Amino acid sequence: MWYVYIVRCADRTLYTGVARDLSARLAAHNAGRGAKYTRARLPVKLIYQETVENRSVAQRREHAIKRLSRAEKRALAKRGAS
After folding, report:
1. Selection from 3, 4, 1 nearest residue 63 by Cα
2. N or C: which end of the chain has fewer CB within 10 A?
3. What one-character DSSP code corresponds to residue 40?
4. What number of H helices and E strands is found in the chain?
5. pLDDT in tens, 48-65
C-alpha cells in the first residue's frame, strides 16, 4: 500500500507527497529530514491522506492533487478520503 497525503506547514502552505510508511514520512518531515520545501516550514500537520494500491497510482494521484487550487485542496481535505 502507498499513501498520498497533504500536510499543512507552519506558514499555512500545503505540501502534497507520497509515502509507503506515512507515519515515518511525517516524522521525517517534522525532524527536518523530509522534503526541502517543508524543512523551513516546520512543523507540519497531516490534513489529508488516501491509500492507493501502488507507487504508480500514488504518483499520478499526487500530480493530480498538485494541479488543484488551494481552495480545492482544502475542500478535498474537508471531505476526507479512503
Report:
1. 4
2. C
3. T
4. 4, 3
5. 999 999 999 999 999 999
> Sheet holding 45-52: strands in order across?
14-19, 2-8, 45-52
Q: Specify whether the CB–CB gap between 4 and 58 falls below 8 A.
A: yes
Q: Is the pTM above the cut of 0.85?
A: yes
User: 20 to each of 2, 26, 27, 55, how far by Cα in Å?
Assistant: 5, 11, 13, 8
Looking at domain 2-79, its CATH architecture is 3-Layer(aba) Sandwich (3.40)
Give the tens place of pLDDT for each residue, 4-35: 999 999 999 999 999 999 999 999 999 999 99
